From TrEMBL:
<dbReference type="InterPro" id="IPR042112">
    <property type="entry name" value="P_AcTrfase_dom2"/>
</dbReference>
<dbReference type="InterPro" id="IPR000890">
    <property type="entry name" value="Aliphatic_acid_kin_short-chain"/>
</dbReference>
<dbReference type="InterPro" id="IPR042113">
    <property type="entry name" value="P_AcTrfase_dom1"/>
</dbReference>
<keyword id="KW-0808">Transferase</keyword>
<keyword id="KW-0012">Acyltransferase</keyword>
<protein>
    <recommendedName>
        <fullName>Phosphate acetyltransferase</fullName>
        <ecNumber>2.3.1.8</ecNumber>
    </recommendedName>
</protein>
<dbReference type="InterPro" id="IPR050500">
    <property type="entry name" value="Phos_Acetyltrans/Butyryltrans"/>
</dbReference>
<dbReference type="InterPro" id="IPR028979">
    <property type="entry name" value="Ser_kin/Pase_Hpr-like_N_sf"/>
</dbReference>
<dbReference type="InterPro" id="IPR023865">
    <property type="entry name" value="Aliphatic_acid_kinase_CS"/>
</dbReference>
<dbReference type="Pfam" id="PF01515">
    <property type="entry name" value="PTA_PTB"/>
</dbReference>
<keyword id="KW-0067">ATP-binding</keyword>
<comment type="pathway">
    <text>Metabolic intermediate biosynthesis; acetyl-CoA biosynthesis; acetyl-CoA from acetate: step 2/2.</text>
</comment>
<keyword id="KW-0547">Nucleotide-binding</keyword>
<dbReference type="GO" id="GO:0008959">
    <property type="term" value="F:phosphate acetyltransferase activity"/>
</dbReference>
<dbReference type="InterPro" id="IPR043129">
    <property type="entry name" value="ATPase_NBD"/>
</dbReference>
<dbReference type="GO" id="GO:0005524">
    <property type="term" value="F:ATP binding"/>
</dbReference>
<comment type="similarity">
    <text>Belongs to the acetokinase family.</text>
</comment>
Length: 470
């Protein structure tokens, strides 16, 4: 329903005229005044069936007592009240010519507008409309990003960033702090970090902590020696290893001083995950660590795994990756329909590679009969409904897969990068699965937004792990 913007002049002499003119009749004056004194939670006075959505005071005068009394209920109920210096006629002309368009490249205004609209939409009501539908539900990229941001805000977690003086990381930390996504702990020389921040045009204030490794490194030596004493760790070697900020950040995580770790903007994947594997280790019930990417297609979000960690998993390991990835998809609001990808569909092909995928599918189905898993499936049969009808008409997954499990790292990493770069898509990840505490790796080509959303993922993982431990 359209809403009326009620325009009133602040001066007392024109009060009655303005209301009569706006309401098209003096009889509405008393009705309007009575409306503002009613106890309803929201003003519901209408003109020709149009609800008042805001009050605009013109003239720039000090507010007259009668105007203030008239608007008192508006202030109490949260009805927007604006004031301008121009007179009523000039203001009306300005409003008629007001440009409501937001430039496509004005990302800040677009995001604020999206967040405002999303915050006023009842998601539970929308979900109820599709609850009884037999059609599979797709989570759109904007909805996914909004959900990530909101869940991270609610989590209120601390995430350590070992590459604290890296420009993209510094800017991402500032954005996370500004949006309330997480409290970021930057490891590095404070002066250098501030210099980088100034060069990026950002201010590091509330929500960001800078830790100088040189000032705290020594206090972690005893704990590192204790954790690695079975491997012959000495204090000398411990001090040497703690020169690596990833090791330092991992120990902060191990001692619960932070809730998660994000690294990889300049470090390799091996540099990022080796210390956590040695010091944090895998979660109970997990036999390996794997990874997923969230691929933000134009109309839905897909999950790709494993594209970063395991070079050539066995059938047993591949089944574990499928289960971990399905659980990750569900945890972030994506209905998991798992396609085990191969170069052939069903029984059309043979060979050791296809047999590995077939066996992994069987094992995953046995371990988790509650999940919808099928394979082997070719990529086109897994994602395209028309191809699925001809290649796998009886598959519960073909044509509507949301989780894609690749047979090896070569296939997975190549596919993810080809899809991302060719289609110019946003991808979030890799998100590591199976760790006792959340640690996430970044691509060295990661953009600032990639880092922001990886921090959000990490904060959410930390909250989910804490909830599961209760």
């Amino acid at each position: 329903m359209s809403k009326l913007v009620l325009v009133l002049n602040c001066g007392s002499s024109s009060l009655k005229f303005a209301i009569i003119n706006a309401a098209n009749g003096e009889e509405h004056l008393s009705g309007l005044a009575e409306c503002f004194s009613l106890p309803e939670a929201r003003i519901k006075w209408k003109m020709d069936g149009v609800e008042i959505g805001a009050i605009l005071l013109t003239g720039g005068y000090d507010m007259d007592e009668r105007i203030a009394k008239l608007c008192e209920r508006a202030f109490q109920t949260g009805l927007p009240v604006f004031m301008v210096d121009t007179n009523t006629w000039q203001t009306s002309l300005s409003l008629q010519s007001f440009n409501l368009e937001v430039p496509a490249d004005d990302h800040q205004r677009v995001e604020k507008l999206q967040n405002y609209v999303a915050s006023h939409i009842d998601s539970k009501w929308i979900d109820s409309l599709s609850a009884a539908s037999e059609r599979s539900r797709r989570l759109s990229p904007p909805a996914f990003r909004y959900e990530l941001t909101e869940l991270a805000r609610k989590a209120c977690k601390r995430v350590v960033l070992p590459e604290g003086d890296e420009p993209r990381t510094v800017k991402a930390a500032a954005i996370c702090a500004e949006r309330g996504i997480a409290e970021c702990v930057l490891l590095g020389n404070p002066e250098e970090i501030q210099r980088v921040a100034a060069a990026q045009g950002v201010v590091l204030g509330k929500g960001i902590e800078i830790v100088d490794p040189n000032a705290v490194r020594e206090q972690y030596v005893p704990r590192l020696v204790e954790l690695r004493k079975s491997k012959g760790m000495t204090e000398v070697v411990a001090r040497e290893q703690l020169e690596d900020n990833v090791v330092l950040g991992t120990l902060m995580l191990e001692q619960n001083q932070v809730d998660g770790l994000v690294s990889g903007a300049v470090h390799t994947t091996a540099n990022t995950i080796r210390p956590p594997l040695q010091l944090i280790k895998t979660a109970p019930g997990s036999s390996l660590v794997s990874s997923v990417f969230f691929m933000l297609l134009p109309d839905q979000v897909l999950v790709y795994g494993d594209c970063a960690i395991n070079p050539d998993p066995t059938a047993e390991q591949l089944s574990e990756i499928a289960i971990q990835s399905a659980d990750s998809a569900a945890a972030f609001g994506i209905e998991p329909r798992v396609a085990m990808i191969s170069y052939s569909t069903g029984n059309s092909g043979a060979g050791s590679d296809v047999e590995k995928v077939r066996e992994a599918t069987r094992l995953a189905q046995e371990k988790r009969p509650d999940l919808i898993i099928d394979g082997p499936l070719q990529y086109d049969a897994a994602i395209m409904a028309d191809v699925a009808k001809s290649k796998a008409p009886n598959s519960p997954v073909a044509g509507k897969a949301t989780v894609f499990i690749f047979p090896d790292l070569n296939t997975g990493n190549t596919t993810y990068k080809a899809v991302q770069r060719s289609a110019d898509l946003v991808s979030i990840g890799p998100m590591l699965q199976g760790m006792r505490k959340p640690v996430n790796d970044l691509s060295r080509g990661a953009l600032v937004d990639d880092i922001v959303y990886t921090v959000a993922l990490t904060a959410i993982q930390a909250a989910q792990a804490a909830a599961a431990a209760k």
